[in-house]
Design brief:
The structure holds two protein chains of two kinds. Chain A is α/β, with parallel strands linked by helices. Chain A contains nine helices and ten strands. Chain A has a domain of about 170 residues: P-loop containing nucleotide triphosphate hydrolases (Rossmann fold, 3-Layer(aba) Sandwich). In chain A, helix 3 packs across helix 4 and helix 3 packs parallel to helix 5. The relative contact order of chain A is 0.18. Chain B is mainly alpha-helical. Chain B has one domain. Chain B is about 85% helix and about 0% strand. Chain B has nine helices and no strands. In chain B, helix 4 crosses helix 7 and helix 4 runs parallel beside helix 8. Classes of the chains: A alpha/beta, B mainly alpha.
Chain lengths: ~250, ~270
Amino acid sequence: MSAATPLLQAGELKPRRDDGQPYSHPLTLEVRAGETVCLVGPNGGGKTAYLRALAAVDRPASGAIKVLGKDALKLNTDAWRALRLRAAYIGEGAPLLSVVNGLINVTLPAMYHRLGTASQVQATAQELLKFLDYPGRQDLLPAYLNQHERLLLAIARCLMLSPELMFLDEPFHMTDNACREREAVVYGKLTDEKGLGLLIATHNLGFVRRHADQIVFLHPDWMGCFAGWKAFNASKQTEVRAFLDTGA
Amino acid sequence: MAEAQAARGSLIGWLGRGLTDLGIYIVDLTVFVLRAFRDWARRGRVFNRATLQNIYGQVIFTGLDALPLISFLGLAVGLSITSQLLKLGQTIGGEQDVGALLVNIVGNELSSLLTAIVLIGRSGSAIAVDLGGMNLRGEVEGLELLGINVNEFFVTPRIIGAAISQFVLAVYFAGVALFGGVFIITLMGMSGTSLHQLKRMAESVDPQLIAVFAMKNLLFGIIIAGTACYHGFRVRRSPTELPQQTQRAIVMSLVLVFAADGLLAVVS
């Protein structure tokens, strides 16, 4: 895709709640290569639901969604699976396969999709772990790793498939400030060096302030899109002010 | 009178609902297993490197790891049932038929059923807990979102592994139970030579028996792993669903294995 073409286009998108009812606020959004879009707001605003709908993981109640030029609502199962290689999604807690060690977790999707010989896949995995500054052991099961290490392995696992878009649901969950800083550096490298479009649902306003190119504010009573922190912070909207003034 | 009629009506209704539910369950389970095999066969090379590891893992866990228990049970059956039948044959003088009786009861029926019970207890429950736990922790969805077909990755390897293991273990069980029984009775000096008894048994084996035995055990393996995977994937959000689904997997596996055994006995 050319740099000018948006990687993701959502029009009047309304995801579904757990009870099947649609969210009230339609979201229109475009994401380009190298951009970081943050979904923020208090709990109950629907960050995860909107992120999943944007990633074409869940079918929305209404609206249109184009991911990497493809109408996500018209994909059959095979096309949806093929799309998953180019639009990675990491859920909250970055779940890895618990029965295999860290390195196998990273190489597994590439082995499954036959993206190279075993030695080629291993070499790519090592390069990616180096790129991500992975500090942990690769031979341990995920249960023996900390959340920061698990997250980096989950990111490496996605990068093995060379995605163009990456969706992360609360990636700063259960990590300390030092790890959050290191993770922020990683996201910077993903957008700047690999040119990925990143969509992150997060409560980490420090990261949002420094890295977000676009901010989608989701509140049960209101929703708005902002072109970066400056515009977001300058908003006079009651819900935004209440959210920012309470320090999220 | 009216009360008795109402009670009879509700009993019939309960039975009818139970049978309907069981019918729907069997159709649902069959579709689940067939879809898993369809997804597995659809990819050009059916033995994918990633899924092949799962088949090996399942054979090792279900088959190799169960060998000590199967050996013990086989010897126990050999000691109790085989030797008893041999003694009975001597007493009532029907030694000609004892060989056929042993091959049919111990070699065909008991070995298949007892192996299946061991596999349901060991592997069926483990598969249901394993997949249910992975589903709860979001690991299954994590793989789906990497474009991995979870039917192909999780279900088919487990079914193939369990079917192979069930068949091989049942053969092993039958061997241990029959040879063990003959050996024990010979040691006790209660019968003729071991060679004589083994010859009688070998004469009782025919190709149809072997075919039914193979088909039955492969089917048992498919039922055990298929049911376990089916219930494992029914665990959604709450940890309380895990023991519930595991228990259902075990009960339904037992019901289906015994029902299939009965049906095959009638048909063959």
